[in-house]
Design goal:
The complex is a heterodimer of chains A (about 325) and B (about 400).
Chain A (H helix, E strand, L loop, with lengths): L16 H4 L17 H10 L6 E5 L3 H6 L11 E2 L6 H18 L8 E7 H6 L2 H10 L4 E6 L39 H6 L5 E5 L4 H13 L4 E6 L3 H4 L6 H10 L6 E4 L2 E4 L1 H8 L7 H7 L13 H21 L3
Parallel strand pairs in A: 1-2, 1-3, 3-4, 4-6, 5-6
Antiparallel strand pairs in A: 5-7, 7-8
Helix pairs in contact in A: 2-8, 4-6
Chain B lengths: L1 E6 H12 L3 E3 L7 H12 L6 E3 L4 H13 L4 E5 L1 H16 L5 E6 L13 H4 L7 E4 L3 H16 L7 E6 L7 E6 L2 H8 L16 E2 L8 H30 L6 E4 L6 E6 L2 H14 L4 E6 L1 E3 L3 H8 L4 E6 L10 H10 L7 E6 L9 H16 L4 E5 L5
Parallel strand pairs in B: 2-3, 2-4, 4-5, 5-7, 6-7, 11-12, 11-14, 14-15, 15-16
Antiparallel strand pairs in B: 1-8, 6-13, 10-12
Helix pairs in contact in B: 1-2, 1-6, 1-7, 3-4, 6-8, 9-12, 10-11
């Protein structure tokens, strides 16, 4: 990893929202995602980055189930679902096939972009082996984790991506145990550790930033990974109208900072960079926790300041590490 | 044709080389490892145009194969035992995705206890998956059937994956002479490239692998059932074309000395070799005995088995597999199902042999025959019996 002295060949394009409004999307209406589901917004924004033949490989989960109930499909590009834990492997096979068939002249569509969608269960937990293998082998694909913090499709069970102290149906807030007792895996850092050329975080509250990163991830020659925060009002327990607002709060509290890691070089994206330059913009975590029902037990019947402070300390620690890595 | 001496694994690897698939995705496991090692040599030496995906597990091997096949690629993999067990979730999806992957299986015992030697239970569990399932008696059959499998699976009336089983170590590691098929001959037979309309194509966007609820799931599964039925004609045609091109005759169910037989062994894979020698020795003593060899296990040719059993007094089923707590072993259950209601019901002796690679010598076949014949003469069936197990 040629950190610092790297010759930057990967550029994240700078998009303005007004330039994007006329972009076609390839994720149509009529899907059966819940009202206010941020995964739907995320999916539509991702497809706005397409500019060449593109195929999508979708792990089992809400996005897959709700977008393709036979005989309907919401996807206007080739789309394949095989199983839950293996989409990175499926896409590896596709990338290899296109390479071989292009060489033989039996595949003629030219350079084809490959996108994988996996949820937090499919990425942090059951699918991590296949992702790690695909990244080690260096397949040219963009893996997108849309993270809503639990197995929402099966009914809000805790995953390796569920945040600290959140109440889920398998880490319920009980009279003795106050929700999930572990912090979530540093999934983005785990992917950075694979030394792939492009890793980024994003949130559908910042569409121009998200779409630009998808484009950059697809243009990279080799594996790329994006961690997109996508709220679930059913599982996180809040008003469906607030989905995008609360995703934004995850960024503003630095629970989900926005940045890129290109050839090992960390760069904060604009919303997080503003906080880095002016720490007074950093929203205290407690304000975010108060908004969502999955943390209600931290405030009622008594306020668990011990847990809130522990969570804040953990967020601060990761944010400080990120600041150092990105040159602040 | 060039005659060469190779192991069963080499025979399969050379068949894959002749076919020159677009993608091979595989993971090492004894006793199929030689297949992927040899194929890696072909890739490293530029003798194939294949993308060789060295996946991190068999689960990912089958997943990568389904992905590759879904964009229209010709795809090969191989595994055994625990590797197939790890693949099983995706094995079923490969059939329902209608991806005609060819998979060689160096049949090996299933853990536990862990054992690396021959047994067919691994592949026989494919019986409910929708895969076409073939077994081989020798290395020539392993070589030929690997090539024929592509033509069977890719046929538009079939579009199902195909498994080609060769007994672990007994074939996979044993050297025999084979007639090697060249690339030109192989591609003349199966076609230079795979042709299919059912694929991911950026000019004709298609979604594959959709959620089928109560209103469509049974219809989707019924299509696999229908494809298995249609596969019978395709398999007969492919075997017949192979005979025309190579002179080597293949039948889904083969018979030996059955014309006037009163008793017969029925078995699969390399066990047919010892059974055939036993038949020869018994015939020399005047015994009227024959052999039925099942080459194609799925789809299952029930009517052919009934026909061959028509004049039998007793049938002796011998298999390297077992179904714990079942009404017989695995193959013997199929045989009983085939005969039920046919009006043909010879007496039946059921044997499980050779689990975990334990040798069953020709003397063992004589022993099984004598024990069965005695019961048959008393008008009795012999329920499933594990031959050679110490008390």
């Amino acid at each position: 990893m040629n950190k610092g002295g790297a010759i930057m060949t990967i550029n994240v394009p700078k998009y303005k929202l007004k330039d994007l409004v006329d972009k076609p999307t390839y994720f149509t209406g009529g899907h059966r995602l819940c009202a206010g589901c941020a995964a739907g917004s995320m999916a539509r924004q991702v497809t706005m980055a397409f500019n060449k033949p593109t195929m999508i490989f979708n792990s089992t989960g809400c996005l897959e189930v709700a977008s393709t109930i036979y005989p309907f499909s919401a996807w206007e590009v080739p789309w394949l679902h095989v199983a839950f834990e293996n989409s990175a492997a499926v896409a590896s096979g596709v990338e290899a096939a296109i390479k071989a068939m292009t060489r033989k002249g039996t595949y003629t569509a030219g350079k084809t972009d490959i996108i994988v969608f996996g949820g937090d269960g499919g990425t942090y937990d059951i699918g991590i082996q296949a992702i790690s293998g695909a990244f080690e082998r260096g397949h040219d694909l963009l893996y997108i984790l849309y993270d809503n913090g639990a197995y929402m499709n099966t009914g809000i069970q805790r995953s390796g991506g569920t945040p600290f102290s959140a109440s889920t149906t398998t880490s319920p807030a009980g009279s003795v145990i106050p929700g999930k007792t572990q912090f979530r895996k540093p999934i983005t850092e785990i992917m950075v550790a694979h030394r792939i050329p492009f890793v980024a975080t994003a949130a559908p509250a910042y569409p121009a930033d998200l779409i630009a990163k998808v484009r950059a991830g697809l243009d990279v020659d080799g594996p790329a990974f994006m961690h997109i925060e996508a709220s679930c009002n059913r599982g996180q327990r809040f008003d469906p109208a607030k989905s995008i607002e609360y995703v934004k709060m995850a960024v503003e509290t630095c629970l989900h900072p926005l940045y890129t890691v290109i050839d090992g070089e960390y760069t904060l994206s604009r919303p997080s960079e503003r906080i880095a330059k002016d720490p007074s913009r950093k929203v205290p975590l407690v304000e975010f926790l108060r908004k969502e029902g999955r943390w209600r037990h931290l405030f009622r019947p008594i306020e668990r300041t011990d847990l809130i402070e522990r969570f804040q300390t953990e967020v601060d620690k990761h944010w400080e590490e990120l600041l150092v890595k990105s040159g602040f | 044709m060039a005659r060469i001496a190779v192991t069963g694994d080499d025979a399969v690897a050379l068949a894959a080389k002749a076919v020159n698939p677009d993608v091979v995705a595989a993971y090492p496991i004894t006793p199929q490892t030689i297949i992927v090692e040899r194929f890696a040599d072909f890739v490293a030496d530029g003798e194939v145009d294949t993308e060789f995906v060295t996946v991190e597990s068999e689960h990912s091997a089958m997943s990568a194969c389904v992905g590759a096949s879904s964009v229209g690629a010709r795809v090969f993999t191989s595994t055994a035992s625990a590797g197939l067990m790890l693949m099983y979730e995706i094995v079923f999806i490969a059939a329902s995705s209608r991806t005609p992957i060819v998979m060689a299986l160096a049949n090996r015992a299933i853990s536990g206890p862990i054992n690396i030697h021959g047994e067919m239970t691994d592949q026989m569990l494919l019986r409910d998956s929708g895969w076409i399932s073939l077994f081989c008696e020798d290395n020539q059959e392993a070589h030929d059937q690997t090539i024929m499998a592509f033509k069977i699976g890719e046929h538009p009336d079939v579009l199902l994956p195909v498994a080609v089983g060769l007994d672990g170590f007994i074939l996979s590691h044993a050297i025999e002479g084979i007639e090697k098929v060249s690339r030109e001959e192989a591609l003349r037979f199966i076609g230079g490239e795979r042709k299919t309309d059912l694929k991911l194509d950026t000019s004709k966007p298609l979604s594959i692998g959709l959620l089928h609820l109560q209103d469509y799931y049974m219809e989707a599964r019924a299509q696999i059932k229908d494809a298995q039925d249609r596969a019978k004609k395709v398999i007969l045609d492919v075997f017949s074309e192979w005979e025309t091109q190579t002179g080597r005759k293949y039948e889904p169910i083969e018979s030996y000395m059955m014309e006037d037989a009163e008793y017969a062994f029925i078995t699969m894979g390399s066990s047919a070799g010892n059974a055939r020698t036993t038949v020869d020795e018994l015939r020399a003593k005047g015994e009227k005995v024959g052999l039925i060899k099942i080459r194609v296990y799925r789809p299952f040719w029930s009517d052919r088995i009934v026909e061959l059993c028509k004049n039998l007094k007793g049938l002796i089923s011998v298999e390297r597999a077992h179904s714990f707590g079942g009404p017989g072993a695995i193959l013997s259950q199929d045989i009983k199902s085939a005969l039920y209601g046919s009006g043909i019901s010879p007496l039946l002796a059921e044997y499980t042999i050779g689990l975990g690679g334990r040798d069953t010598l020709i003397s063992g076949y004589h022993g099984m025959y004598n024990r069965a014949k005695k019961a048959f003469e008393e008008g009795k069936n012999l329920p499933i019996f594990w031959w050679g197990v110490r008390e």
